[in-house]
Amino acid sequence: MNQKKVGFISLGCPKALVDSERILTQLRTDGYDITPTYEDADLVVVNTCGFIDDAKRESLDAIGEAMAENGKVIVTGCMGNEAEKIHQTHPGVLSVTGAHAYEEVVGAVHQYAPQVKQHDPHIDLVPPQGVKLTPRHYAYLKISEGCNHRCTFCIIPSLRGDLVSRPIGDVMDEAQRLANAGVKELLVISQDTSAYGVDIKYRTGFWQGQPLKSNMKSLCEALASLGIWVRLHYVYPYPHVDDIIPMMAEGKILPYLDIPFQHGSPAVLKRMKRPGNIENTLERIKKWRSICPELTLRSTFIVGFPGETEDDFNTLLDFIREAQIDRAGCFKYSPVEGATANELDNPVPEEVKEERFARFMEVQAEISKNRLQQKIGKTVHVLIDEVDEEGAIGRTKSDAPEIDGMVYLNGETELSPGDLVTAKIFQADEHDLWAEMTDFRDDI
Ligand code: SF4
């Protein structure tokens, strides 16, 4: 495994701790490992405190220790305001930034300990442009690392190893701190969210003194208690996912599932070595929708996988029509160095891939358009992401940031990112919605 490791020293007050938490969450999301030892770390981040002289001295000492023990040190936090003093005392420090400079710190880590892996749209957990730490009202919460499956197009297991679930108490502490820091929406991510806890035999952990089982259902229940939006990504349609649907129907977690189906033809899925059985999946989706009609399904698919016939492709189109997949990303298959799928026979010619990609997108756009049309006239909750001179732009519970659609509230220039409002939808296209604000809410 060539995952880069970052050491982290967090000094100072609870506000500094929240900064540390945001930086650590982001680094974990970007695929960095956090290590407790200097020797293991590719570099060390020191989040300093500059409140009183003693705290400054302690910060300078901590930087000195990290320099001596590791040698590659990035400094952030309150004492970052005295960059000159830090550089004078410890001339080898790589970068110095002040408090709340999440983006700069994460950028410096990427610069001085770059990841070797290239972005892979089939399997990467975050969008290729990376995650913006602003707006700060949503955050990614990574619950595990690695994967127990061996999909033939994927090299994650050889890069990151088998599934390692984070202790549930740690995950919940991080979630709580993010919520306390004003985060209104948590996006739960991992390579296989529904497998959470398998590797640790669903052992019982503790959070706030209470026992809590390390499984997806308990995690969702605990996250629901935070009173903010909780959105699940990379869920596989295993039977136990059924347990989560009533929680969605009751409004405890968002009625949204991101399931990377990758295909709809059993023959192709078999060659991909994908988990799950697609015939049962259609039944399962129907059942979910009968329990929670609000459910939005997002997925990703690969067209042109080796051996994909015209029949297979038509089966895929039938699948997305029947499952009424609300949102879908589609990728033309391309080999990834080291993946076993590279040895499969019958590669699909590029022009056929192109043609299937275009047909897929056309069918998907039609489905999405019809489903969004049905929302016209409805009143929905909208979380505001940005505000410009034309109005506010937000998302409904059906839309994940950066990958799904937007809701435009023209004229609402007084709102701020992170506000939650209710709005009545009056227009839709195949991707986005337009709505009129009806109410400001201070609950979530
Ligand atoms: S489930 Fe398959 S595609 Fe996803 S990370 Fe695991 S091996 Fe890769």
Mean pLDDT: 89
The dominant shape is globular
List segments where confidence is low: pLDDT < 50 over at least 5 consecutive residues: none
In terms of DSSP E residues, the strand content is 15-25%
InterPro entries: Elp3/MiaA/NifB-like_rSAM, Methylthiotransferase, Methylthiotransferase_CS, Methylthiotransferase_N, Methylthiotransferase_N_sf, NA-bd_OB-fold, Ribosomal_uS12_MeSTrfase_RimO, rSAM
Keywords: 4Fe-4S, Cytoplasm, Iron, Iron-sulfur, Metal-binding, Ribonucleoprotein, Ribosomal protein, S-adenosyl-L-methionine, Transferase
Enzyme class: transferase
Pfam families: Radical_SAM (PF04055), TRAM_2 (PF18693), UPF0004 (PF00919)
What are the key terms here?
single chain; 444 residues; alpha/beta; five-stranded parallel β-sheet; five-stranded mixed barrel; 12 helices; 20 strands; globular; binds iron/sulfur cluster
Brief rundown of the structure:
The chain is an alpha/beta fold and 444 residues long. The chain has helices spanning 14-29, 53-69, 83-89, 102-112, 156-160, 168-180, 216-224, 245-249, 266-272, 278-291, 310-323, 350-373, and strands spanning 5-10, 33-35, 43-48, 73-77, 95-96, 138-142, 144-145, 164-165, 185-189, 204-207, 210-213, 229-232, 256-258, 296-303, 327-332, 379-388, 391-395, 407-410, 420-428, 433-441. The strands form 6 sheets. The chain has a 5-stranded parallel beta sheet with strand order 2-1-3-4-5, with helices on both faces. Strands 16-17-18-20-19 form a 5-stranded mixed β-barrel. Strands 6-9-12 form a 3-stranded parallel beta sheet.
